[in-house]
Fold:
Amino acid sequence: VNRVGIANADARRLREVVEGQLIRSEIVVIAGAVGGGASEDVRDALADLGNLEVDRVAMHPGSVQGFGQLGRDEVPTFLLPSNPVSALVVFEVMVRPLIRIALGRRQPMRRVVTARTVAPITSIENRKGFLRGQLMRDEATGEYLVQALGGAPGASSHLLATLAEANCLVLIDPEITEVRTGDQVDVAFLAQRG
Structure:
């Protein structure tokens, strides 16, 4: 992993930084590159390096994201949202599996289990939900239990505090807008903390 740090808004400098990474990277990830006017600035600065497309994906958080292939070697390049939680969710759902496939891992996706909800969950209609959650185990039965930690419609999806507490993503199908207490949901494990 090569971390560049923060590139300023100067188009020439951004292009230089990205070009430097394209010659040594198999995948490039640019965080803070979509949302608002930033995506146009990034696309304009990188336009002659290849094709980048920014679009909406039917998921939340992180519906606005970008992808393309840049440089002579057509390096896969991801543009992540400026919202930090959205960026981390998009990385987890879109980028991490590609990295694991490139590394030859047999299972690119996180382990998924079924858990019973301990509180109601709301989700955005027509978008697959990847909501931060706290996965627990019932000591008596061994059953998985889950509580969503934010990211519901109207909640502050950008707050990193709930992501720091999360140990899973609650997966909500696009046609579901409400999950009742006690319903079963699929849950993807996140990396162990500590």
